[in-house]
Amino acid sequence: MTAYFASLLFVVLAEMGDKTQLLAMAFASKYRWQTVMWGVFAATLVNHLLAVIAGHYLTNIVPIHYIQIAAAASFILFGLWTLRGDTLNDEDKRFNFSPFWTVAVAFFFAEMGDKTQLATVALATKYSSIIQVWLGTTSGMLVADAIGIIVGIVLGKNIPEKAVKWFAATIFILFGILGLYGATPRDFWTPTVIAGSALVLLLLIYGVIRMGKKEKT
Question: pTM for this one?
Fold first, then answer.
């Protein structure tokens, strides 16, 4: 069950403040929350099934050593992406079907290329169980979007956006660093490499924070 719980945790963290969580909150203000959750569930089942299949078969093409490095690096990128923040660009108005299909179709396309889908691909390359990763990432989406709906809509309370972003981003970056350390030779990590890597990471964090602020102004 390690793959299931790890997948659930990572997707919950990735989804905090993400575009699709904002989409759930937007739809919950127009439709019944049950309809929104069923639409999210259906869209995520299909979308993440495609992602775990892609991630699983990638290991048959690319040597596992390189995949481990790429997966670890991707977690650092997810952390930076989380710090930058996300916005909702009228995805809640793009489709006009019945409430269920409106939610399901909008979520499916909003999730394409999103960091939660990319995290699902990365998790599928790390763990050998397609079913556990698929169910774990789907459960994670439901948990995160339910939190967004309950806190943001039903209770009408403000989400501490900065605190949630920094917590999620820190977890992603930490796991990425540990993954890179475990996938590379020990003699690679000289003091110079460690210092240089830390400096680059700090500059990237600074850059994405400034980028996120500029996009909101």
Answer: 0.62
